[in-house]
Amino acid sequence: MRRLKLTQKLVLSFLSILVSYFLISWILYHKPFDKHGLTNTDGHRGKSSIQTALQGTLYDNEKRENRQQDRILDFETEKNFFTTRSSIINPLNHSLLISPRDFCGNDVTILIVVLSEFTNLVRRKTIRNTWASTLEKPEGVRIAFIFGQQSAKKWNDRLEEESQKYQDIIKYDFPDIYSNLILKSLSILRWATDHCKNVNFVMKVDDDVFIMTSRLHSYFERLYPKRILRGHYNAHYTVLRDGKWLVTRDQYPFSEFPPYIAGGAYIMSLDVAETLFEAAKRVPLLPIEDAFITGILAKITGITIFSDGQFLTQFAHENLEIQSTICSKSYGSVLAILLGAPDEHSISKLMLLVNKCYREVQRLQALYGPKPPWRQH
Q1: Residues 6+ apart with CB under 8 A from 19
Q2: In the predicted model, what is the mean pLDDT of residues 124-145?
Q3: What pLDDT does residue 315 have?
Q4: Which of 16, 160, 204, 323 has the maximum number of C-beta atoms within 10 A of its C-beta?
Q5: Where are the domains of the chain?
Q6: How far is the C-alpha of 296 from the C-alpha of 259, rounded, in Å?
Q7: Which of 42-56, 129-143, 260-274, 338-352 is predicted with the least confidence, judged by mean pLDDT?
Q8: What are the φ/ψ torsions at residue 348 (nearest 5 degrees)?
Q9: Is the pLDDT reported for residue 319 higher than 70?
Q10: Residues 212-230, mean pLDDT to the nearest whole number
Q11: For residues 357 and 147, which has the higher predicted lDDT (pLDDT)?
């Protein structure tokens, strides 16, 4: 008899818990909250801990389901996705509006093209006065800036004036907006293969990167100028489904990009530039230019990418009093440094500081050789 009563109590307790669970679930799904999750329709602030926990569980389950979906897609569609289409889907035949004349003669072996926004006037001036200046730039190296069509006529006019003054501007007729960054980067490959057929290497650089130009020849002379694609290696980079760098599942159905080279600065031999550009005509474009060009296109075309420690991904500082640290970075074999700073003038100031230190390093190397004096013993 006692066992029967105990069993009845356990059953009733279980049913009570089950009813409570379904009641809470019903409240959770049918009691709307404002979009910020701060007040419900009855005016009460916040969520109960039970609601928060249940929502968190549901969100985690959804994430697991999405990852599982991505894994299934990886298995089922990878072979079909990572291939060139049978016909051209991206002509990539935008008109060339501005191009420097007689830019790549027979003596030019290295072409550097800088991605820049028109409004970054101070950065371009600083680059021309530092690592792209004639004092720093070795023979056989050409440096240009690339743009698309500007939204305002006065900006296009000023860009034309800048071109006349410096003869280092490349401009195509696609709108120069962030979503067209992939077109801008691919246009570097196109311009190089069309106008610099004698160069061995092409280097893509963002305008917040400092290049140790005097080290270029010693760096490139050890590389055979075929099937080269090098820079800072990104592996297992998760695809973002929202925010500034979002890529939809329709655009790219997998959870991770193939390994690729970070877009701040990367180098390739001219044959690779031509191969990747031609492949891009037959592959759906993605807005993340570095992952698309050096990851997806490289995988499709069988180009092997190489991780190179001489490319620093970020040297970010809001405090610009960092000369000793920068000097230690500049003294080694570093070729490219990404300069993170909060605004246009801070980036330029940081670039000038790097340049000052770099010149001092060059002076010390002339006196003491590869090792700095503080490391002689």
Answers
A1: none
A2: 93
A3: 61
A4: 204
A5: 16-81, 96-368
A6: 8
A7: 42-56
A8: -65, -40
A9: no
A10: 94
A11: 147
Q: Name which CATH class applies to 96-368.
A: alpha beta
- Residue 235 has phi, psi (to 5 degrees) of -115, 145
pLDDT at 350: 85
| 94 within 8 A of 146, measured Cβ to Cβ | no
Neighbour-count burial of 161, counting CB atoms closer than 10 A to its CB (0-12 exposed, 13-18 middle, 19+ buried): exposed
Beta strands 260-269; 201-206: pairing state: antiparallel
CB-count exposure of residue 63 (10 Å: 0-12, 13-18, 19+): exposed
**pLDDT value of residue 333:** 76
- Burial label for 30, CB within 10 Å (0-12, 13-18, 19+), is exposed
Q: For the sheet containing 306-307, what is the strand order?
A: 96-98, 169-175, 141-149, 110-115, 201-206, 260-269, 229-234, 306-307
Which residues make beta-bridge pairs with 256? 238
Q: In what order do the strands lie in the sheet with 209-211?
A: 209-211, 336-340, 311-316
Tally of CB atoms within 10 A around 84: 16
| Structure-token pair, residue 94 | 């935008």
Cα distance from N-terminal residue to C-terminal residue, the chain: 91
Secondary structure class of 71 (helix, strand, coil): helix
Average confidence (pLDDT) over 6-23:
57
**Where residue 48 falls among pLDDT bands split at 50, 70, 90?**
very low
The answer to whether residues 216 and 267 touch, using CB atoms and an 8 Å cutoff, is: no
Amino acid code (one letter) for 188? I
Return the exposure string of 132-152: e unless at least 16 CB atoms fall within 10 Å of the residue's CB, then b.
Answer: beeebbeebbbbbbbbbbbee
Tell me the residue length of the chain.
377
d(CA 367, CA 47): 68
DSSP 79-119: HHHSS--SS-S----PPEEE--TT---TT--EEEEEE--TT
pLDDT, tens digit (0-9, with 9 covering 90-100), for 222-268: 999 999 999 999 998 999 999 989 999 999 999 899 999 999 999 99
Q: Please compute Rg for the chain using Cα positions.
A: 28
